[in-house]
Structures are given as C-alpha cells and as structure tokens.
C-alpha cells in the first residue's frame, strides 16, 4: 500500500507549477471543508473583482521593476489579460492570490475593476511552494534570488534536492550549484546579485576553501576585470600550491635566539650589546660604552638614577 501511495505522489512531480495546481484540487483541509458550500466555482475560471483579492503572503519577491510594470499595464490596457491569474478562495467572495502578482498590480494601476482568474484549492505549504516555483521560472531572476528560492523550497517545503530538481526542471547538480552560492562571503553574493560578476566567476570562486583567498580573487575580478577563464586558471594554481607538501618550520636554535636578542638590545641602547649563553641558559649581557656621555645615555635608557 505504501508503494502505491508513493507512486501516486510521484506522478505529479516534474510538471512544475501546473502539477501543483492540479494536485491542489485534491487537497482537503479543515479550512477548506468549512467553506465547501461556497466553493462551487473551484477549478473554473471566473471574473473576480480586484478588491476581493488579497496579496499572496508567501510571495518571495518583494521588489518589482516599476518600468516593466508600466509596460505590462500598457499591454493589458490594449490587449487585456491574456493569461488569467490564479487564486484560492478564502470565503464567499473573498480570495487570495496564488500566482500572477505582476498582472494583478498592473491591472490595479490602470483602474480595472475585475480580472479573469482560475480558482484553486491550496493549503499554506502549497501556496508557498507554488509562489516560489513561479518565482524561479521568471527569466530575470539573478542567481542569488534563485538560490534563496531553492533553499526555501528545501527547508520550508521539506523537499529533497532530487525532488526539487524534478519540480523545477533542473538536475540535482544544477540545484546544488545554486545553493552552494549562499556559502560565499556576503560581499561576493551581493556582487553576483547586482551582476558585477557572473555565475561562472562565482562557481570558480566557490571551489576555494579559504574565505580570504575567495575575497582576494574577487577583488582581482572587480579591479582588473578578470574573465571566468582567468579566474579558473588562478584557482587551479591555488589548488596546486595547496597540494604541495608544506615545509616544516624549524624551531630557532639557541644561537639564533641569542643573535636575535643581541640585535634587539643593540638597537634599543644604541650600542653594540654582547649576549652570551651556554646550553644551560647561563650567560651574560655586556653593554660597552666609550665615554661618560655614552654611559649617561645608556643609564637614562635604563631609567637608572646614579646616587652621589
């Protein structure tokens, strides 16, 4: 029986937003059952008053290109709504947007009273999943927005990478490559988001283990305009260097330590200081002076007052 149920669930995967919308028809939640008598229009397309439609609380996209919205509004004014929006019914004559935020905003901006909409049944998790998948399928998303949407689908919708890949039409490797971008330092993520570097640059940088080295390569990209190929070459060089056996750092010998101390003391006193030590760390320090003035200076350095 478990296998049969599993097969039924899996048949909806791979068809993206359309599959979710179809599967959502079969979902019955307590809230949905309470409204059953007022949902004769479920699964149909209707003209709905814009004032009756609430925003999608799970909409992952918070900023919209205003110029693009104006262009869409002009198109709707001339051509009308070509693709209906999708909503779920909350109560009698009360709806909540599932997908079509830009069409809804553009329609409101030109004063439309009603808009064609498909009415679906969806629980909260499906609302989030459908909003995220619709968002991912947009052409103008940057790599970081896609990565964040993938991450939300995995964490909030309890999807595995394989399941997510099938739903968005990508293989697991592609999904993983996007999610790995979120491990980059924030400044590199911001540059990728703002199109200052490409996905190719980021994929090369992410293979470097050290944040410091990642930032060093990133700065070269920005300052010197390194190409993706140049970055890949530098990353390979770093990899070869890291694979070389590191030289063992020799512990300074007693003689080296004494020489170092002798040099520091000579610099401090402004005189040729002599330091001697044996293997048992016994020895002496000599500070020679050639005149009374030089002696006075050495004593002043030692902050030693001569009592008379």
CATH class of the domain at 2-122: Alpha Beta
What's the shape? Answer: elongated
Query: How many helices?
Result: 15
Rg over C-alpha atoms, rounded to the nearest angstrom: 35 Å
Give the end-to-end Cα distance, rounded to a whole number of Å: 107 Å
- Low-confidence runs (pLDDT<50, min 5 residues)? 1-17, 19-40, 244-252
Spatial arrangement of strands, main beta sheet: 1-5-3-4-2
Question: Quick one: biggest sheet?
Answer: 5 strands, mixed
Helix content percent band:
40-55%
Protein name: Chromosome-partitioning protein ParB
GO molecular function: DNA binding
GO cellular component, one term: chromosome
Organism: Dyadobacter helix
Write up what this structure looks like.
There is one protein chain. Mean pLDDT is 76; it is low at 1-17, 19-40 and 244-252. With 308 residues, this protein is of the alpha/beta class. Among the domains are: 2-122, Conserved hypothetical protein from pyrococcus furiosus pfu- 392566-001, ParB domain (Alpha-Beta Complex), CATH 3.90.1530; 198-241, no CATH class; 254-301, no CATH class. It has helices at 2-10, 16-24, 30-34, 66-79, 101-109, 124-136, 143-156, 161-168, 172-180, 186-193, 199-205, 211-224, 228-243, 254-269, 292-301; strands at residues 45-49, 53-54, 85-91, 94-99, 114-120, 274-277, 283-286. The strands form 2 sheets. A 5-stranded mixed β-sheet has the order 1-5-3-4-2. It contains 15 helices and 7 strands.
């Amino acid at each position: 029986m478990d296998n049969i149920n599993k097969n039924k669930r899996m048949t909806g995967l791979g068809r993206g937003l359309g599959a979710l919308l179809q599967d959502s028809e079969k979902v019955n939640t307590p809230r949905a059952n309470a409204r059953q008598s007022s949902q004769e229009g479920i699964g149909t397309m209707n003209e709905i008053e814009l004032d009756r439609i609430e925003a999608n609380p799970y909409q992952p996209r918070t900023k919209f290109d205003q110029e693009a919205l104006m262009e869409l509004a002009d198109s709707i004014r001339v051509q009308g709504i070509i693709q209906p929006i999708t909503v779920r019914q909350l109560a009698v004559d009360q709806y909540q947007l599932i997908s079509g935020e830009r069409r809804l905003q553009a329609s409101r901006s030109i004063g439309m009273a009603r808009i064609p909409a498909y009415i679906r049944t969806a629980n909260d998790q499906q609302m989030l999943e459908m909003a995220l998948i619709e968002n991912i399928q947009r052409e103008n998303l940057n790599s970081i927005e896609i990565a964040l949407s993938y991450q939300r689908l995995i964490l909030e919708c309890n999807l595995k990478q394989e399941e997510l890949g099938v739903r968005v039409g990508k293989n697991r490797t592609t999904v993983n490559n996007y999610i790995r971008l979120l491990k980059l330092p924030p400044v590199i993520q911001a540059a990728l988001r703002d199109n200052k570097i490409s996905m190719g640059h980021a994929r090369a940088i992410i293979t470097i283990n050290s944040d410091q080295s990642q930032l060093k390569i990133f700065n070269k990209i920005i300052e010197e305009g390194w190409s993706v190929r140049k970055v890949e070459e530098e990353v390979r060089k770093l990899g070869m260097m890291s694979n070389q056996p590191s030289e063992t750092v020799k512990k300074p010998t007693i003689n080296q330590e004494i020489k170092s101390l002798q040099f520091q003391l000579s610099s401090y006193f402004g005189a040729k200081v002599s330091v001697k030590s044996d293997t048992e760390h016994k020895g002496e320090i000599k500070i020679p002076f050639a005149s009374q003035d030089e002696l006075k200076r050495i004593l002043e350095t030692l902050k030693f007052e001569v009592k008379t």
